[in-house]
Automatic annotation (TrEMBL):
Entry-linked HAMAP family: Homoser_kinase
Ubl conjugation in keyword set: no
Species in which this protein is naturally found: Ruthenibacterium lactatiformans
Enzyme Commission number, as recorded: 2.7.1.39
Family per record: Belongs to the GHMP kinase family. Homoserine kinase subfamily.
Recorded name of the encoding gene: thrB
Protein name per Swiss-Prot or TrEMBL: Homoserine kinase
Annotated ATP binding sites: 83-93
Amino acid sequence: MVKVSVPATSANIGSGFDSCGLALSLYNTAAFEEFDGVDITSSDGTFVPSTPGNLIYRTAKEVYALCGRPFHGLRIVQTNPIPMARGLGSSSACIAAGILGANALLGGPLEEKDILTFATKLEGHPDNVAPALLGGFVVSAYDEGHVYSLKKTIAPGITFAAFIPDFKLLTEKARAALPKMVSHADAVYNLSRAALLATAFCEERYDFLPVAAKDSLHQQYRLPLIEGGEAVFALADGLGALATFISGAGPTILSVVRTAEANVFFERAQAALESDEELAHFTLHRFVADNVGAKVV
């Protein structure tokens, strides 16, 4: 039996739309065993599809086909702490798990670059699958069928506060809210800040994040879909967060906090969630960066 662990991820990080992402210390696992048929269960009580349409199973089957190997079925046991449809990379975690699990069962015919490119092909964009596979902060470009990704380990000086609501927001709905065209001014606004964002992480100049994470391409259109979202932004800003942004397509909102100030931030943020009815449907979670990425354990 092969077991795989995959971290949650947060894509975009404000200005880095569809190109930047980072990995967080929350993990799904999947145990794989070759089996004559389909046997898929969840060991933590989370509902998962038990049919061949299960994303992990479907992805693993694609790996067998890619490698030219016969496929008869799998037994898969999942744990799923990463909440689904919350903007924390649950689908990317399934894709990464399916590829790594199948690749391990087959003896490792796929190399890292093959895995990353195949995962991006299945997901459609690399901003979640790249940090899920590599860990850390990752900038990616998808060019002519190939993925180019660079990773930077995230220093322990920052901590992440995830405000996770009790409702889902499907990526399709969040993408449908975006305009089909943007102005030259908005494009330049994001290009300059995305470049600064990458440099800030690479140089560990987290003091630049308040400017670097600003966005004009997607968040203003998605925030109305997140009930209480504006209040969360205001709360985090008032408590001194370095940056706050919609995680992926939402509805989770992620704040970056200096680790030295994190205890006070979380104490005050939790008190606000408990006292403000507008924020009552959010729960607060504390994460650090995962700098390893998906792995066979």
